[in-house]
Design goal:
The complex is a heterodimer of chains A (277) and B (254).
Chain A (H helix, E strand, L loop, with lengths): L1 H5 L12 H22 L32 H37 L1 H15 L3 H12 L3 H28 L2 H8 L4 H9 L4 H24 L11 H8 L7 H27 L2
Helix pairs in contact in A: 2-3, 2-11, 3-4, 3-6, 3-9, 4-6, 5-6, 6-9, 7-8, 9-10, 9-11, 10-11
Chain B lengths: L4 E13 L11 E13 L3 E5 L6 H8 L6 E7 L5 E3 L13 H10 L8 H14 L16 H13 L5 E5 L7 H18 L2 E5 L3 H7 L2 E6 L2 E6 L1 H6 L4 H9 L8
Parallel strand pairs in B: 3-7, 3-8, 5-6, 6-7
Antiparallel strand pairs in B: 1-2, 1-4, 8-9
Classes of the chains: A mainly alpha (277), B alpha/beta (254).
Amino acid sequence: MKKFLSLFKKNKATGQRNTFLLLGTILTGIILLMVIVGVFYTPYSPTKMDASAKLQGISLKHIMGTDNMGRDVFSRVLYGSRITLIIATFTILIGAGVGTVIGALAGYFGGMFGEVTMRIIDAMLAFPSILLSLVFVSLFGTGTYQVAVALGISFVPSFARIVRGEFLRCRNMDYVEVARLQGVSNIRIIFVHILPNTVGVLLSSVMIGFNNAVLAEAGLSFLGIGAQPPYASLGKMLSDAQGYLFSRPSYVISIGLVIVLMVLGFSFLGEGIKRIQ
Amino acid sequence: MEQEKVIQIKDLKVYYKDHKKNPLSRDHRRQVLKGVSLDIYEGEILGIAGESGCGKSTLAKALVGMNKDIEGELIQKYNDAQMVFQDPYSSLNPTKKIGWLLEEPLRADKTRNWTKEERQKRAKEIMRAIGLQENMMDRYPSQLSGGQRQRVSIGVALMKSPKVLIADEPVSALDVTIQAQILELLQKLHQDMGITILFISHDLRVIYQICDHVAVMHEGIIEEYGVPRAVYKDPKSPYTMQLLEAAGIRQPKV
């Protein structure tokens, strides 16, 4: 804990503060707090409609206004950011998990196996990831978890490439040869000896991937795929709100701002982690 | 000294694959060792000298089974040879603590199951043998100096008490005062544990200092073999002569 806190203090040697890490932690903290509070408490029910209070502006009663069906936007944002976070988390778990294993095996063993695997990965990369996830969504059907799986699969190639690169770098290090000489098994070398050495790179790409997942999910929701009504993720809400861009700008802007804060928080966190050392 | 052979090498040839330029062409094999014959006697320190690229490291790697593409005979009495690498900055995993690194060979030991207490006890023994404080076991390699790291590397190799230790340029990456300490450590381990050491170096003075025999390698073959004192005094091969002159041990004839 003490070590963790010291990351935020000024570095004694260089006199510099890791501002990215600090900002990233604060922003991510705010978002996480919103999500956790949203589990237990929302000012209004996120699904309760009120025809008499449609499209209201920002007021003390509704701090982000109301939407076209009179639902409280702030309550819906609390709920929606939870869905968005769940989708993004599952996407990264699947993408980074599968991608790491594929990249690790391809990088460590190399040869014919590595080449064939990476060419398949390259073929997947050739399609835009949003198109690829659309294909998978049409296979699995729509819904929160189906979207997460579809996005996760489309995120595998980028992680596989990053991890493979790291493994190619580490594979010929002397400490790997030493481990091999001692009779350590290949699987143990991959996951116990080499993988911890790729954590720095992996962690910051997880953070960047998290952002992309939030944005990709917003994009998919915008197309009407993802969480189904009456619940909505942030992306779905944004697409609902776009029709009122001129008549009630606060509606669109408040939702957009939450997405921006979320993405900014994670990118700062990723950049901050990259700068730890 | 007992003159039993621990390793007999007969006409050993080692091939490397050349990087293929055309992925469809067959791999091109390049011969790196061109028929090396060498006996290593029990309990000796054998020095292998030669310039960079002459095949010293290739020979070492062939002995521990890291080169697969080999021809010729390789008879090992114990088959447990361990190796110490040149660069102490890359031979220790930076994400692991010293204690963990020392215990790892025992965790991977297929011949017997070591309990946690046994492993820790053995690691402490080795820490004492390599002349490091026990409290250093909680440190990471980055918190150690180059000399200390090389001690740990030697320690890792010694964990399973091998009969043969191959040291591939163990002191070349260290500065001179630390070199002397590591050489002293190797000599001490050699005396205390009766371990046979294959000492690879390009430094002829160091070999003279600690080795019982010396083999001079040049372009994949052994040019000369003998007791250092005799070889240095009266080299048979012109290449050895050149090496000795370059090292300033012999004066060139005018």
